[in-house]
Specification:
This protein has 342 residues and is α/β, with parallel strands linked by helices. It is built from 13 helices and 9 strands. The strands form 2 sheets. It has a 7-stranded mixed β-sheet, with helices on both faces. Bound molecules: glutamine.
């Protein structure tokens, strides 16, 4: 139970009426903050229900899509409880320091900082991932790529070890999920951003996957040189940046202003990284190995063509996402006569 701070949490009805002598939360904050928040009223008594009500209204006023839900998620994160527990304890008083942290967090959300960065959490393949501004927030569509890898890996049951390369690992979501789902997976996770790799390591440690993932910093396949896996890779998987420069300004503010630019945008046409990966894939893939890409809307045909133009792959397959967009492209490297054609 948190200490009852109602005695000291009696802010004025509005800032101009701050003439009484009861200490209020505002009294402890600097003038800048006070003037910036002239219009943001804290609830009279900082109980769970009043805070959520205030935060919900604040977020709604800023045009946030699910204001009440976000208000609850953020408060339960700060209180270290489940969201459902808020309903059971509406009158629980919230201590000053926490109220101030809550107010700050709500202010960030009002400025469109993605909820996942505020609570440092995203769920992917039913696993909890740590996320912050250093990495792209894992998306549900990407689970389709992971499932496609798992399905193809099962056709390689005879192998002692399944070598998988994850290009642009970001938070490490794909690699960690694959370690959890595939006993024999040995993963090489590459990212050009050392910051992203730091986050990926946090997630690998969290899920006990550190020993089965080799994290490498560099551009596409370059850091794989010297790892002894040339022509031995069973699956290359990648959800690379695929937004075109022209499309970038049209993205939702949450994405555009807060997610890492380098994880989103790839050149003038959004296809730059695909082109580079496709050209080198053959060197690394074992004959009969697979390449599995997540692609942007309307890119599937172009990416399939890039693969076919190399003359090294069988006819690509596609998987549609929940919005019926062709989201995943899968191609098998030629050369393994014993395998079914895909
Ligand atoms: N692999 C991560 C993901 O799928 C990061 C992708 C990226 O940074 N483009 O979410």
């Amino acid at each position: 139970m948190l200490p009852d701070t109602r005695e000291t949490n009696t802010p004025p009805k509005d800032s101009k009426q701050n003439t009484n002598h009861h200490p209020s939360i505002r009294d402890f904050r600097n003038k800048d903050v006070r003037s910036r928040e002239k219009n943001t009223l804290l609830p009279d008594t900082c109980t769970v229900s009043r805070l959520v009500l205030w935060a919900g209204k604040t977020l709604q006023a800023h045009g946030i899509d699910s204001p009440r839900l976000d208000a609850e998620v953020i408060l339960s994160y700060l209180l270290g409880c489940k969201r459902i527990d808020l309903y059971g304890n509406p009158d629980m008083p919230v201590e000053n320091a926490l109220t101030i942290r809550y107010q700050k967090a709500i202010r960030r959300r009002a400025q469109r900082v993605p909820l996942q960065y505020i609570v440092n959490h995203a769920e992917f393949m039913s696993l909890d991932f740590y996320v912050d501004e250093r990495v792209l927030i894992p998306r549900p569509e990407t689970e389709l790529a992971v499932e496609a890898v798992i399905k193809r890996a099962h056709t390689l049951a005879g192998e002692d070890e399944i070598i998988i390369v994850d290009i642009g690992t970001g938070s490490g979501n794909i690699s960690v999920a694959l370690v959890k789902k595939l006993e024999k997976a040995r993963i090489f996770a590459v990212d050009i951003s050392p910051d992203a790799l730091a986050v990926a390591r946090i997630n690998a440690r969290r899920h006990g996957a550190l020993t089965r993932i080799t994290f490498l910093c560099g551009d596409t396949f370059q850091p794989l040189e010297g790892q002894g896996i040339e022509s031995k890779v069973n699956v290359i998987v990648s959800n690379p940046p695929y937004i075109s420069r022209g499309e970038f300004p049209t993205l939702q503010k949450e994405v555009r202003d807060y997610e890492p630019y380098g994880a989103l945008v790839s050149g003038q046409d959004g296809l730059q990284i695909f082109k580079r990966i496709v050209l080198q894939a053959n060197t690394w893939l074992k004959p009969g190995g697979f390449i599995i890409f997540e692609v942007g809307e309307k890119q599937a045909g172009e990416v399939a063509r890039l693969l076919q133009d190399t003359g090294c792959f069988r006819k690509p397959e596609f998987i549609k996402d929940y919005q019926h967009i062709y989201r995943i492209v899968i191609a098998q490297r030629e050369g393994n006569r014993g395998q079914n054609r895909h």
